[in-house]
Design goal:
By secondary structure, the chain is α+β, with helices and mostly antiparallel strands. It has helices spanning 5-8, 13-22, 60-66, 99-113, 121-131, and strands spanning 26-31, 37-42, 45-46, 51-55, 71-77, 85-95, 134-147. The chain has a seven-stranded antiparallel sheet, with helices on both faces.
């Protein structure tokens, strides 16, 4: 078996859900009618170990999901080997039709991406009304996660008593 980041340092279970809950961007790739790939970064929230994404009615992701076309998504972080982490997801999008659940998800989005008095909250909400924003659940068929941050221990200063002749170290 080939060794990959997800087999070397897997991200599973509650750790994976905590990672997804904190994540701010998910890159979603869905398949258009002509077979092309439509890729875009979107927001996400996690509620009761389920992933929800706000999507405006005119989005091709909504049309592709309604047509039952394949979808992949990626949540990732890291700038170098020791900080690389992510979750790759394949699955489907299902529109949230329960109005109470949609209201809960809308509140979670506001709590996650805006603060009290945020200068763009009102415009975001108004645009959502105009654009027919809805909420879609990303239902995973498969999730693969990795987190290389757990491999390395950051260098930390330690208090040590060194022999008197060692004068080039801070203690």
């Amino acid at each position: 078996m080939a060794v990959t980041a997800s087999t070397w340092q897997p991200l599973r279970g509650d750790k994976r859900w905590a990672y997804l809950t904190r994540a701010r961007t998910i890159r979603v790739a869905s398949t258009d009618a002509d077979g092309g790939i439509y890729l875009s970064p979107l927001w996400l929230v996690v509620h009761e170990k389920r992933i929800y994404i706000p999507i405006d009615a005119g989005s091709r992701h909504a049309a592709n999901a309604a047509a039952g076309r394949p979808l992949s998504a990626l949540v990732d972080l890291g700038e170098e080997y020791a900080t690389v982490s992510g979750v790759r997801i394949t699955g489907t999008l299902t529109e949230v039709t329960d109005s109470a659940l949609a209201a809960t998800i809308a509140d979670l989005v506001v709590d996650k991406y805006f603060h009290v008095g945020h200068p763009f909250l009102e415009q975001y909400q108004e645009f959502g009304d105009v654009a027919g924003r809805g909420y879609w659940e990303l239902v995973p068929d498969r999730m693969i996660g990795w987190d290389m941050r757990e491999l390395y221990t950051l260098p930390m200063p330690e208090k040590r008593t060194l022999p008197a002749h060692v004068t080039d170290r801070l203690v």
